[in-house]
Amino acid sequence: MAWFRKEKKPRQPRREKLEIPADAWEKCEACDHTDLREKFVRNLNVCPQCDYHRRIRASDYINILMDENSWEELDVDLRSVDPLGFPEYPARLTKALANAGDSDAIVTVSGTSGSMPVNLGVMDFAFMGGSMGSVVGEKIGRLGQRSLERKYPLVIVSASGGARMQEGILSLVQMAKTSALLAQLAERRIPYVSILTNPTTGGVSASFAMLGDANIAEPGAVIGFAGPRVIKQTIGQDLPEGFQTAEFLLEHGMLDAVVHRRELKATVGQLLRHMSGQPAAAGWTST
After folding, report:
1. What's the average model confidence in pLDDT over 191-213?
2. Crossing angle for the helix pair 168-187 and 134-150, to the nearest 10 degrees
3. Strand 116-123 to strand 154-160: parallel, antiparallel, or no bridges (unpaired)?
4. What is the pLDDT of residues 72-95, one digit of tens each?
5. How are beta strands 25-27 and 34-36 bridged, if at all?
6. How far is residue 140's CA from residue 142's CA, in Å, rounded to a whole number?
């Protein structure tokens, strides 16, 4: 009665390998926590373990701050040139264009945020360290002029190592140019909110980044003019712990608030409504 007996067959070993893509995992730069890249992206590239705010691209900030399908990019065709004949500058520009994918170190858009018309400029550290050259100054100038004409609030997200040395004095002039424009906005009581991210240093921090009607920063952002080593050598003293971080600046009255990335849109919206004399958004309560 062979059909009542179950013949045991040796189980074949599973030979197929489950390969995980190389880019599926990412590590936090601050605490070395390793997690799925998708989890970091869902958390707006904030570490779920230590809350470290990782550096993100200009397009990411636009998606965070602006309403979906509400915005258009401005002045796309503006490109940096080599006015001073600086060695290897054209090659560096070509490489930055290829690597970053943006036309320069800032992206400017116009649209709505929380259904409120807004002009937004976002610097991108991926393009030559977010350095401020003539194109950055010109784009901010045109964006500010648009705010003057339409009476739209202005928001700028800064992420920069400072002025672009390859453009020399032409880069430094942008500090005065952007500051003068912001003075016109202030005279006409058109709100300007400055968001400082990691890092915001040099000529950018010495001009438009610190001139907002409200200056807010992401947690842990490094903000300052010169680097800690240069300052220490200049004053001949040890610097306090946490020097040049957003939290240190808030404690010493240089910032109005330190805001988590997931709260940026709601906070900016509430600030703009308050400065524009409009009612608070539904469901918002002060803390």
Report:
1. 97
2. 10
3. parallel
4. 999 999 999 999 999 999 999 999
5. antiparallel
6. 6
